[in-house]
Amino acid sequence: MFRHIGEKRTLKHDLGIASLLSFVAGVVNVASFIAVQRLTTNVTGHFAFFVDEVFKFNMWQGFIYFLYIFFFFLGSFTSSVLVEIMSKRNNRQIYSVPVIIESIILFTVAIFGQQLISESPNILAFLLLFAMGLQNSLVTKISNATVRTTHLTGLFTDLGIELSQLFFYKLKDQKQKLYSSIKLRLTIISFFFLGGIFGGIFYSIVKLYVLGIVGTILLIGLAYDDIKLKFSNRAK
Q1: Percent of all residues in the chain with a pLDDT value above 90, rounded to a whole number
Q2: Sign for the pseudo-dihedral over CA of 221, 127, 43, 137
Q3: What is the C-alpha to C-alpha distance for residues 204 and 43, in angstroms, rounded to an integer?
């Protein structure tokens, strides 16, 4: 699901990466909000707060909201740069580095999170926003913008459009393409929701160590993908 790109990608690959990464994003979204009351999987709300604080002349608080936006952007930028660099060196491992960096950030917040909550909650938010920007850019590039996993606004918009099109598109090929796209949207929404439930339940038990759990899940998904690809190549 991480290794196949372009024409080699199938709906199965997109469903696999969508379920894994949207689940991770759902956990991060809820855990960070409970921990520091910050949304870390998208920046739409932060932009509104940034403008509001600027108009109130609360420049320092406005700058903090600007940094939230910037760190999400920086994660996206970094992910794309890493992918371009890796594509010129080792195409097989092209998407491994951003996933590993995201996992390291999740482990770091899991270990030092409680200290950051009391001393520097904004740094905790910066780290998770960077990680989610990293993830969103990565999955967008892998899937050729078919899959986005860190926020749901666009997904519900696309889902609404595609469901309405079912009433008008009658050809078999058109309907099949719509069904596949709707299935993908519903998978992302469902796993984001499940990740949120998982994050809320386990945060109440283990606090921010729940991010260490999803960091491990990310690495397992990456390792599984690598092993599966090796066996597939040997079978050919």
Answers
A1: 58
A2: negative
A3: 25
